[in-house]
Design goal:
Length: about 475
């Protein structure tokens, strides 16, 4: 056998290795850094993922007004500058790559992402991909199809991004959307939700660009009772994830208008369950601290939703354990299908029980859904439900200060915030200090000073043009 052939064989063997050794080391480190109270069998951090990542200080300005708004009062006095954004995104993501390993999901988040010129937006997404990140752009969704096309295609009309992922933020607490400046209720936004999704469907049909869409919604006592209808009305629009954020007292205090803590996380989750039409088990898979995140993975067949794991069924919990043990480090999202198939085959060759456990799970799921339903609809639509509960700045600030001093607070609220920050699943990077901080700390503690400095560095120009105005 020639040495060239042997080299190729070795490279093929390495590229189909189920888990990259660096991923194994990063996951182990992540697990060891987690506080004891979240090191449970259900914990995804350190067993499957390192957590989510987000950018900060890159384009803080927004052209809609939300109540509440998590951005500090100076955010809208900072000019959107594509060059600054790309430079900062590259530096922040490089640090995240260094500290959190080769693969993660990351959000390109500011302000409003569509205020960036499309070329700069694309350059920022590509800079994130260069660091092994699967990027998602966070937007209010009030932009035109021409912007999306300009973002996704290069000067020759060819796709320049392997996939576009957006989280569209739609709720009645946002003011200034074109055509519906002050929404009367959630349902009146449905045509705008539909229009947003349709732009991506058109892009895929006309140019072959794949997409993933999430729907984000802030929840206050004003729209709490409308959550269920949003899900019932929009579950088949094309969103792959519905994320709900109970409002917190953080950011610009001029935009705090309600008693956000009058409703609890349980109230919000009950409404999500009412919309999904079924109990949503969130204890089979946990991301960080349960007080921060609840997640249910599942799928629709027709109008019915089926969670993939039931936290009250031992067989499902065993399936989860086997997944974490043998497949936890496999990079599913960022691997081409043929390579992924070989990786899985190698896992099964070493651990045949994996195939047995997952076959049994498939049979159980098929029985739960029912053959008649499967034959009737012939289509499974994966949809994930998430609730992410940010904390109030009044709790985060003393908790972070105590953590910096190496102290544990005796005050129950501050102690709870400390525990949650230590188990945080959503990190932001500071290349200037080499530090990663929880997003709660970024918004509660660091954003105000950062935006004052950015306001000096990137003052508003006399005329600010945005793509929406074009
Ligand atoms: S950003 Fe805040 S609410 Fe979110 S996971 Fe981190 S600590 Fe919890």
């Amino acid at each position: 056998m020639s040495s060239r052939f042997l080299t190729r064989l070795r490279l093929a063997w390495e590229s189909t290795r189920p888990v990259d050794p660096e991923t194994t080391a990063t996951l182990r480190e992540r697990w060891q850094a987690l506080p004891e109270h979240v090191r449970t069998p259900a914990q995804a951090l350190g067993q499957h993922a390192v957590g989510c990542e987000g950018t900060h200080g890159v384009f803080p300005r927004c052209n809609l007004a939300c109540t509440p708004c998590y951005h500090s009062r100076d955010a809208n006095r900072v000019r959107v500058d594509g060059g600054h954004t790309v430079t900062q995104v590259r530096a922040q993501l490089r640090l995240l790559r260094e500290r959190r390993g080769p693969h993660a999901h990351a959000q390109l988040i500011g302000g409003e992402v569509s205020l960036l010129p499309p070329d700069d937006h694309a350059a920022a997404l590509l800079a994130m991909r260069e660091q092994g990140r699967e990027p998602m752009s966070m937007s209010h969704g009030d932009f035109d199809a021409s912007y999306l096309t300009a973002l996704a295609l290069d000067a020759h009309g060819e796709p320049r991004l392997p996939r576009v992922s957006f989280a569209g933020h739609f709720d009645m607490l946002m003011f200034g959307r074109r055509g519906i400046e002050r929404p009367a209720d959630e349902r009146s936004l449905n045509p705008y939700r539909r229009r947003f999704v349709d732009m991506f469907a058109d892009l895929r049909r006309e140019h072959g660009v794949p997409y993933f869409l999430a729907h984000n919604m802030t929840v206050t006592p004003r729209n709490l009772n409308q959550i269920a209808d949003v899900i019932r009305d929009c579950h088949d629009y094309g969103f792959g994830l519905f994320s709900f954020q109970p409002a917190a007292f953080v950011g610009d205090d001029r935009r705090w208008h309600e008693g956000y803590r009058d409703s609890t996380d349980d109230d919000v989750w009950a409404q999500i369950e009412a919309g999904a039409g079924t109990r949503l088990p969130f204890r089979a898979l946990q991301v960080g601290d349960e007080r921060c995140n609840r997640t249910t993975y599942g799928f629709y067949v027709g109008e019915r939703y089926f969670p993939i794991l039931d936290d009250e069924k031992p067989a499902d919990l065993h399936t989860r354990d086997v997944f974490f043990r043998h497949l936890g480090g496999v990079n599913f999202a960022g691997t081409a299908l043929p390579t992924l198939a070989v990786k899985l085959a190698r896992v099964i060759a070493r651990h045949p029980s994996v195939a047995v456990v997952f076959t049994a799970w498939t049979v159980r799921m098929a029985r739960t859904v029912g053959l008649r339903r499967l034959l009737r609809y012939r289509r499974i639509r994966p949809v994930t439900f998430v609730m992410h509960s940010f904390m109030d700045a009044a709790d985060v600030t003393p908790a972070w200060e105590a953590l910096q001093r190496g102290e544990t607070s005796a005050q129950p609220r501050v102690l709870a915030a400390q525990q949650r920050l230590q188990a945080c699943s959503y990190a932001m990077a500071h290349p200037e200090t080499g530090e990663l901080v929880p997003a709660c700390v970024q918004h509660s503690v660091l954003d105000p000073g950062e935006n004052v400095a950015l306001r000096q560095f990137l003052p508003l120009l006399p005329t600010v043009r945005s793509h929406r105005e074009g």
